[in-house]
Amino acid sequence: MAITGENARKKRRPKTFSPSLAGHCLRYATMEMLGFGRALDEETRDAMSQGSRRHKAFQAELGARFPMAKAEVALKDDVWGVSGRLDVLLETARGPEIIEYKTVGGDIFDVIQSTGPLVSHWAQLQLYLAVSAIEHGLLVVENRARDGRVWYRGRRDPAWEAWLKERIQRVNQAVATRRLPSREISFRCLSCDRWQRCFPTEEARQHAVEEHPAWEPVPPVPPIRYDHVSHEDEPGAEFLA
Ligand code: SF4
């Protein structure tokens, strides 16, 4: 008869859903929750550490301007099955406002400037708004390659709330059965750090993406409704209570 000691290896419990997964493909999110490894190259590691430094600098900058700003506010909700941290929570004259901060490379920054926020960034902000039931949010995107920052103001959006609920539910079902969802092939596969779980070779990945470059999740992504905030309108004293 086998005796199981206190230190016997237990089956690893899946992680809770992190808001940073909100705009990802279901297969990727499921892999993250099940603890699959990632293939991080030097460039990605460098971008991550640069992003982390800028993140802290941004939080310090806002903290200096607005003493009531709270950074790294923990957020956990058992009904949503979500846990994470808000970058900054700011009390303003309009009520509490969540600020989500992102850094991107120069090419992506140019795309964002001309076409608006990325789905992945907006999905994360919308998830924070939905879970915390806060009405107002700001997305701040900074260019890692050179100076440049854009701000987008948004409101809690019921269409996004429904989309996020459905997507998280699908991930949770996949995690519960430990079966990876089908691939959601798109241009994003080219920068995915778990692509080897989806394609046998880089050539196969390239070919699949050429055949199907657009990301077409189910259900379809709702429209991103935002107001662009000009540099002069960045949160200032006029917003504060
Ligand atoms: S390679 Fe593509 S389909 Fe596979 S997990 Fe990454 S984004 Fe999803």
UniProtKB/TrEMBL annotation:
<keyword id="KW-0547">Nucleotide-binding</keyword>
<dbReference type="InterPro" id="IPR038726">
    <property type="entry name" value="PDDEXK_AddAB-type"/>
</dbReference>
<dbReference type="GO" id="GO:0004386">
    <property type="term" value="F:helicase activity"/>
</dbReference>
<dbReference type="GO" id="GO:0016787">
    <property type="term" value="F:hydrolase activity"/>
</dbReference>
<keyword id="KW-0234">DNA repair</keyword>
<keyword id="KW-0227">DNA damage</keyword>
<keyword id="KW-0067">ATP-binding</keyword>
<dbReference type="GO" id="GO:0006281">
    <property type="term" value="P:DNA repair"/>
</dbReference>
<dbReference type="InterPro" id="IPR011604">
    <property type="entry name" value="PDDEXK-like_dom_sf"/>
</dbReference>
<keyword id="KW-0238">DNA-binding</keyword>
<dbReference type="GO" id="GO:0003677">
    <property type="term" value="F:DNA binding"/>
</dbReference>
<keyword id="KW-0347">Helicase</keyword>
<protein>
    <recommendedName>
        <fullName>PD-(D/E)XK endonuclease-like domain-containing protein</fullName>
    </recommendedName>
</protein>
<feature type="domain" description="PD-(D/E)XK endonuclease-like">
    <location>
        <begin position="39"/>
        <end position="198"/>
    </location>
</feature>
<dbReference type="GO" id="GO:0005524">
    <property type="term" value="F:ATP binding"/>
</dbReference>
<dbReference type="Pfam" id="PF12705">
    <property type="entry name" value="PDDEXK_1"/>
</dbReference>
<keyword id="KW-0378">Hydrolase</keyword>
